[in-house]
Amino acid sequence: MKNILLKTILVFVVMTIFNTGFVDETVKFLKLPGGDFGMLSLSILIGCGIVSVVGLVTVFIFKQQYHSLWKIALLFEVLYLLMLILSGTNPFTYFLVPTNPKLLSVLLYANSIGVFLIMVLFDLIYSKVIGSKSKN
């Protein structure tokens, strides 16, 4: 992909969808009540939208710094984790009082790191495929 802004939008959309989907599945897995946690995936979707806008502005300003997919994914990851911290999600409270709602906080961070690792793995595979095509 040559256009950096299109690549950035694609990475942000994919990471937003993955984070939102993983949060929804985590709430279902933990069997948390829908009244309290049913709207969490929508909150994550809105938060990821805000993170995406801030990240897109950052990439637009510093175009020369963000030419690889993993750098764009790292930008999203840092902004997403900052959003979780600022929203009051503390993963360490689970270790003081182990309950399912507190485990959700830990899994929000774990899901985010998992999504980042998926994007890095995709970048490695993508660069190997493009690299082998350019050799031929």
Structure in words:
The chain is mostly helical. 78% of the residues lie in helices and 0% in strands. The protein is built from five helices and no strands. Helix 4 packs antiparallel against helix 5 (100-135). It is elongated, with a radius of gyration of 17 Å. It starts with a helix and ends with a helix.
Radius of gyration: 17 Å
Termini, distance in Å? 19 Å
The residue-averaged pLDDT reads 89
User: What's the total helix number?
Assistant: 5
Overall number of strands: 0
What is the element string, with H for helices and E for strands? HHHHH
Main beta-sheet annotation: none
- The secondary structure category is mainly alpha
Give a brief description.
By secondary structure, this protein is an all-alpha fold.
Helices and strands in order:
Layout: H1 4-29, H2 34-37, H3 40-61, H4 69-86, H5 100-135
Helix pairs in contact: 1-3, 1-4, 1-5, 3-4, 4-5
Features:
136 residues; single chain; mainly alpha
